[in-house]
Amino acid sequence: MAKAIINGNRSKGQINKNIYGHFSEHLGRCIYNGIYVGENSDIPNLRGMRTDVVNALKTLGIPVLRWPGGCFADTYHWRDGIGPKEQRKKIVNTNWGGVTEDNSFGTHEFLELCRQLHCEPYISGNVGSGTVQEFSDWVEYCNMGGQSPMAEERRKNGQDAPWNVKYWGIGNEAWGCGGNMRPEFYGDLCRQYATYLRNYDSDHPIYKIASGANTADYHWTKVVMERAGALIDAVSLHYYTVPREENWNDKGPATGFSRQEYFTTLRKTLYMDELIENHGRIVKQYQGNRKVGLCVDEWGTWFDVEPGTNPGFLYQQNTMRDALVAAVNLNIFNNHCDTVVMANIAQVVNVLQSVILTEGKKLVLTPTYHVFEMYRGHQGAQQLESYVETSLVGQGEERVPNLHLSASQSEDGVLVTVANLDDTSSAVFDCVLSGLGKVTEVSGRVLTGERGEYNDFGSEENVMPVPTTAQITSDGFQAILPACSVAAFVVS
Ligand code: AHR
Q1: What's the gap in Å between 171 CA and the centre of ligand 1?
Q2: pLDDT tens-digit profile of 68-79?
Q3: Half-sphere exposure (CA, 13 Å, Cβ side) for 39?
């Protein structure tokens, strides 16, 4: 029996709904085919956006969507993607497969997508190969409500009202594909860019996110915070779960992986906790009397591409292992809600740890999709401190705690989300709710399957949440957590 305690007397604060954010990049079949098929497609669409994809994403209530990259962002010149489509430049996507990018999906299309999804846009600007003027013009183009050259150009292109885009990323991975910069150089550059990204409406101030560290590069966070901390609102962090990091040509398969690799993947996922602790401490040390947030604006699993697919497209399947990776990461973000202000899983459709996969007209919801849906109630809720007794499970050297938990309270009740990482044994979950009054009702759902199970095109959806029973006890509730599962309980 695993005892858990949800402490109604202790909270780290509100869980920023943006922790449940996503990332759309001009990479492989994410934008084209995945999200955008164009108005003349025989795939049902609204202004070119796939209706099935938009509806599925609306069910998740996605709060914020990052675009256009990723590495693509630092080669993207936004003017290539505005104006009449037939006149837009056709360029080469030099980062991802060398394919032709016809720019038919640009600023107006992205902001139309966000309108359909009812989510906030988050635009990453080009610092690596762009200019301060170009970036500054983009903000003016999107946000200037009065008279100005950029506002006039936007109106000519059919958009009268400003979009008031709040979230702006000052480059992406400036230490790598975003310019191979040293933190000292980027820190100074970031100051310069931040200076010229203006507010055009005092009711809609923009929020500036500096390009942050890769994994445990604490020096990067320190130097960028020292130099630019006073001019930014947040700094990012990228951390991917890669089973075999030693050789990026052999990261491990997305399906058909060994039991050992399953536990390696989960152990590496748990490392996110330490990364947030350490980067968060540095950010707080240098933020002065302002609050600078941490945006984990790229995270998720990164495996070998599916055999036979374009290696530049990073297309991978998604199994129950990914569901556990998602559950663990989201629990970690919830439990660090005093530090993490946004997180964006990479990428929303058809790339790395995607919630949706498409093939022509067909669409598959991945196990990761279901975790986001089950965790939706955490968005904007009050985090509650929680603890669960665990035992170590695994194979060989690879050992991880069997259970992983987070909890929050909202007007819908207390949401308890728990993952059972043990792939062979179920656990009796005895959950005590302390300081939260008497429990009168509990409803539960569970997502479970073999560790390598996934949903595929043309077959029944194997992996999807089903109701599970929970017994009310004198001080909480009790339920069985199947082996390899993610469960969500709503308690009132
Ligand atoms: O998600 C794929 C790539 O990973 C992104 O474009 C980049 O930011 C990161 O290195």
Answers
A1: 12
A2: 999 999 999 999
A3: 5
